[in-house]
Amino acid sequence: MPRWLPLLSAVLLVAPPLPAQTPSPASEIRRMVDALAADSTRGRPTPSRELDRAAQWAAAEFARLHLRPLGDAGGYLQHYTIATSQAFPESSSVALGGPVARVWRVGKDAFWVPVTTPGRATVSGPAVVLVGVPDSTRLFAGVNLRGAVVIQLAQYGEKGLAAPTWLIKAGERAGAAAWVLVTNRPDDEWAGELRVLHNVRTTILGAASLLRIPVVELRDNTLGAALAELGVPEAGLRPLPPGHALRRLPGVTVRLHLVERILTRRTAPNVVALLPGADSTRRGKYVVLSAHLDALGIGPRVGNDSIFNGAADDAVGCAVVIAAARALAAAGARPPGSIVFALFSGTERELWGSGYYVSHPPVPLTRTVADLNVESVGRKSLKDSLIVVGRPDSWLGPVALEAATAHPEIGLTLLDDPWPRRHYLDQSDHSYFRAHGVPALFLYNGPSVDTHTPDDNPDKIDAESAARVAAYLAALARTISGK
């Protein structure tokens, strides 16, 4: 890239006042992509100062459009905390108390499942044995779990471990203090599990996926053998008998002592804004327009470049969302329903930002009717076309075609998903919305040879094509909000 581009991009990242003459949509797309994907942003990794500056820039763009802030403390930024932590298995243990007393060391006889909020935990309670997976309509059959440690005899098979997260969360809601799995996991896989205990793990604090109670796993030859001594008839039986059973073990207690140290805490931002609907009867329903703000930062050098600028993935998606916001917020153009604009971070790091958003939604997910997620559009090879992934999956499919048909002036042809076996509907930020029952469409013109390389530069973006996508996105959002 030219040596003067970082200096120019630093100027662009301070959003200037709107000029007296409104620029063309394509020139606005070009301005925004050049700003976000310049070398000076150093690939906007999560977390980083460069990402923080990009988020402030995006917030300034939303402020220029007089959108309502949906972030923390009345601002546009929704911050989440990224914690790194390390367990100390040699200082952690699982103990069985009562007629058959045993102590097992984590890292040898027990595996601490890394699904909880990090930190030290010492819990104890009376033992309740659950055999198999109960029917969701009769979960715990009237047994009071408050303060108890549930010991679940769980079957390990070709499809993995029969210990669904929903079941453990149900136990958590019922007041269980901890959850202990007894499995028939094979030796080689068990050894692999234990090896990861010393790894540093990264957690998004407050994420809905985290459990509040500790979960540990032991096997038939340890806790299973002790349960057999206590007279639990199913202990050691593999496969487990059909059905399920739930019973207390009188006089038997379980104590977990788990040591984990938090090493670092850093924050990263989502940028979120609202355009309230013009129709008071539809204003309480929301359509989310989303893209991701982050890229991969600095990586292995390719030629003379090591900055993964992320122009197509996904500076252009952010530019398209902001351009759609501009069109929708224009005088006399407000849609009947409300529109949320969300630029997520952490997408390249296991969808951290969108995962946090759905855990702490600034507007109710139950009243969110759609997520329209934009990524890797504006490619020169698909100048007049747009692939819309997910059209057959929900009621949004016919609406997507309706919006395109109603606006032939946009000059955009919709294409079906050419890669159904890649399951793109289950990837990227929209997947979290779908997991929470919100239908989604993925506006995505696919990966290229430049994806996730230092060659994903602004000069690869066709601004005219991206401007068409922005016009279509605004039309589609307006159409959905009126349904």
Name the CATH superfamily classification of the largest domain.
Answer: Zn peptidases
CATH fold descriptor of the largest domain: Aminopeptidase
**What's the pLDDT, averaged over the residues?**
92
Low-confidence stretches: 1-12
Indicate the CATH architecture of the largest domain: 3-Layer(aba) Sandwich
Name of the level-1 CATH class of the largest domain: Alpha Beta
Strand content: 25-35%
Number of strands: 22
Using only C-alpha atoms, the radius of gyration works out to 26 Å
Helix content: 25-40%
Number of domains: 2
Please provide a written account of the structure.
The chain has helices at residues 5-12, 25-36, 49-64, 165-173, 187-195, 220-229, 311-329, 352-359, 396-406, 430-435, 463-481; strands at 68-69, 77-87, 93-97, 102-105, 111-112, 121-131, 149-153, 156-157, 160-161, 178-183, 201-204, 215-219, 245-258, 260-275, 286-292, 297-302, 305-308, 338-344, 368-375, 385-389, 413-415, 440-444. It has 483 residues and is α/β, with parallel strands linked by helices. It has 2 domains: 5-81 and 267-481, Aminopeptidase; 89-258, Glucose Oxidase, domain 1, CATH 3.50.30.30. The strands form 4 sheets. Strands 1, 2, 11, 14, 15, 18, 19, 20, 21 and 22 form a 10-stranded mixed beta sheet that branches. A hairpin with a 2-residue loop joins strand 16 (297-302) and strand 17. Helix 1 (5-12) packs across helix 2, helix 7 crosses helix 11 (463-481) and helix 9 packs across helix 11 (463-481). The longest helix is centred in the middle third of the chain and has 19 residues, at 311-329. The radius of gyration is 26 Å and the shape is elongated.
